[in-house]
Amino acid sequence: MKIYITFDMEGVSGVVAGMTGVNPNAPTAYSRGQRFSTDDVMAAVEGIMEVDPNADIYFNDAHGGSLNVFYEECPENVKMISNSAELFDEVLGIDSSFDALIGIGEHGDTDMQDVVLSHVWDVRKVAFNGKWLTEIGLDATLAGYYNVPVVMISGDEATCNYVKQNISPKIATATVKWGISRSSAICLHPKKAQKLIKNAVIDGLRRRHEISPLVYQNPITVDMVHKSSGEAGAHMFFVPEDERLSGDTVRFIASNAKEAYFKFLQRDKLSKPKAGR
């Protein structure tokens, strides 16, 4: 098998506290978050190798500066996709040669209740054909374009429920924490979380042929709700052919999911506030 693991830090058990656990400028909390993150990823790798000891595994550390997981602790059959964050791309390099996508440390968007460290890249919300998407939802759209199913994710309870309701009810999930607010949660002990992750990976991979990829009817209408009217204005300045629906919301049409995914990332990056603004 050829498996893609995408990693985001916000959904790791023990990572909470208003971003201090995911921010290298808070070294004590961040170093612990790195340890938890590495062990969660290693648990996923162990699960893959239990199903297929010869699996070809690609790992994308897609959070922040892509230096959150101690990659050197992985077995030698794991390849690392480095610095995909430069392109805002959590599934950089995925294509139809992969058998499955796994998401470790996933989180929800800002409108979801009881989600820890919620966001969706640098916008407030994004929808494809009226379906509001989290970051793993966006990843699933590009994977689905290549007919690759998301077979497993770990994260908080609300995010795990989201993937079952919006991507596929058959996705294996590992709920490792329960949000109390955006910056606090009830968290599993890391060792317990890792056992759940490994078992969910095994379950999802063994049932991968039962899990349908996320596929859209073309063309795709993309609605981007920016965090401010200024960001929506910057979006329209650089991409004037798009349609502005309101002060903060802009719409464009894409011919397929791949185009929708990358055009969203392009517009998100163009509208991102610069230092000193």
Any descriptors?
2 domains, five-stranded antiparallel sheet, 12 strands, alpha/beta, 277 residues, Rossmann fold, single chain, globular
Order of helices and strands: EHEEEEEHEHEEHEHEEH
CATH A-level architecture of the largest domain: 3-Layer(aba) Sandwich
Q: How far apart are the termini?
A: 47 Å
Largest sheet data: 7 strands, mixed
The Cα radius of gyration reads 18 Å
CATH class of the largest domain: Alpha Beta
Rough shape? globular
Q: What integer is the average pLDDT?
A: 89
Describe this structure in words.
The protein is α/β, with parallel strands linked by helices and 277 residues long. It folds into two domains: 2-210, 3-Layer(aba) Sandwich (Rossmann fold), CATH 3.40.50; 220-270. It is built from six helices and twelve strands. It has helices spanning 27-51, 135-145, 157-166, 190-206, 229-238, 257-270, and strands at residues 2-7, 56-61, 78-81, 100-106, 125-128, 131-132, 150-156, 172-181, 184-187, 220-225, 243-244, 249-254. Strands 3-2-1-4-7-8-9 form a seven-stranded mixed β-sheet, sandwiched between helices. Helix 1 packs parallel to helix 4 (190-206). The relative contact order is 0.15. The mean pLDDT is 89.
